[in-house]
Amino acid sequence: MKVPVRKQIEGLTPYKPGKPIEDVQREYGLEQVDKLASNENPLNCSPVVIKAVKEAAANLSIYPDGNATELKEAIAEFYGVKVSEIMPTSGSNEMVWLLAKTFLNPGDEAIMADYTFVSYKIATITMGAVPVIVPVKDFSLDLDAMADAITEKTRIIWLCNPNNPTGTLFSEEELHSFMKKVPEDVLVAYDEAYIEYVTDPSFSKDGYKLYQRYPNMVVMRTFSKIYGLAALRVGYTLANEEVLDNINKIRRPFNVNRLAQVAAIAALKDQDFVKRSYEVNMEGKEYLYRAFDEMGLTYAKSETNHIFVDVEKDCNEIFVELQKRGTIIRPFPRTYIRVTIGTMEQNKKFVALLKEVLDK
Ligand SMILES: Cc1ncc(COP(=O)(O)O)c(C=O)c1O
Q1: Which residue of 26, 31, 183, 358 is most buried, as measured by CB atoms within 10 A?
Q2: Residues 29 and 56 in one domain
Q3: CATH, residue 35
Q4: Bond prior to 201 in cis (omega within 30° of 0)
């Protein structure tokens, strides 16, 4: 092909999602494959959602509400905030890209951790901006070092709390003292994709209100994780009207499809499902901690639905060996893997396979 691609795109490697179950089944001739690679909800989603989506699917010829008014109203009611302070998107991933497109000029800097959600870096580079990478400290975001990295060129700071892939959480106090060091003309993109899984009782989970205190802060959340709607692609952002008005200028029309809107509204109504998912996750987490302890493996204490663990062997090798045996996990550089907490049955199978491949 003779058409040159933009120079920012040349060096990028595509986002690599967790391997689909069907691919692994075909490749290794396996009947039962568990995917513990993409931090999905092992309980599927609420039956209330399935019913609502089936009903809505009876007519697919009409475009969705481009403003997602009913979904905004449902979120506004749920949180007690204004409708104008909410923007639903096609997964929170879409918002990562919208923020980069709205706020990053070529040559600007965007600060992020080395181990964090990968879209921040891809979106930053795509805009011709410079990712400023700050190493995590003891698996956690190093907020002091991130604040020290701020320069006149900084436009966005990407904060994931709790963090993917390490699962760690920083406290609200730490966040407030961090925000004191952030100039008003730097946007803090605060990603709470896993907030509903947090078990630390001292953490209030009221972080969605932070944009009311800090006008340069946007708070991203998603229906993909504890609500189990990853297939439908729906997330939402809470932010000040002025920020959202600017983002709205480049938002694709009809960015959240109708089934996704209907599903998200129904999902919010079934908080019992959320509670059940939380409990299954907590039980699975304790089980996996015990198993890792028995195997003598080091891991980061997680406040999410996944655990970052050092398997002390080449992670890609372990990934392939587990996959051959029917469990897909996510390899990270060197000796780390990230495993999504599954049902107890999935967790037990994973532990048995891990023991086998590690010879423990
Ligand atoms: C930290 C974080 N943010 C955002 C996302 C994107 O989620 P979605 O686009 O499905 O809402 C993910 C997905 O894994 C994530 O881990």
Answers
A1: 358
A2: no
A3: 3.90.1150.10
A4: no
Backbone angles phi, psi at 203, to 5 degrees: -95, 125
Burial per residue of 316-336, b for 16 or more beta-carbon CB atoms within 10 angstroms, e otherwise: eebbebbbebbbbbbbbeebb
User: Separation of 234 CA from ligand 1 center, angstroms?
Assistant: 10
CA angle (218 as vertex; 214, 224 as ends), nearest 5: 145
pLDDT for res 12: 87
What global pTM score does this model have?
0.96
Give the model's confidence band at 10: pLDDT under 50 very low, under 70 low, under 90 confident, else very high: confident
pLDDT of residue 275: 98
- Show the domain range for 239: 47-269
Is 255 in the same domain as 333? no
Among 224, 250, 269, where does a domain finish? 269
Ligand 1 closest atom vs CA 235:
11
Residue 193 beta carbon below 6 angstroms from any ligand 1 atom: yes
Q: Residue 134 Cα, ligand 1 centroid: separation in angstroms?
A: 20
pLDDT at 140: 97
Asked whether residue 222 falls in the same domain as residue 241, the answer is yes
Residue 8 belongs to some domain of the structure: no
The two three-digit tokens of residue 139, written as one number: 């698996």
The verdict on 109 and 76 lying in the same domain is yes
- Within-domain flag for 4: no
CB-CB contact of 210 with 203 (8 Å): no
Nearest Cα to 224, choosing from 95, 137, 353? 95
Identify the pLDDT of residue 16: 74
Q: Does the CB atom of residue 34 touch ligand 1 within 6 A? A: no
Domains in the chain, number: 2
pLDDT of residue 270: 98
Q: Distance, CA 273 to ligand 1 centroid (Å)?
A: 20
How many angstroms is it from 177 CA to the middle of ligand 1? Answer: 26
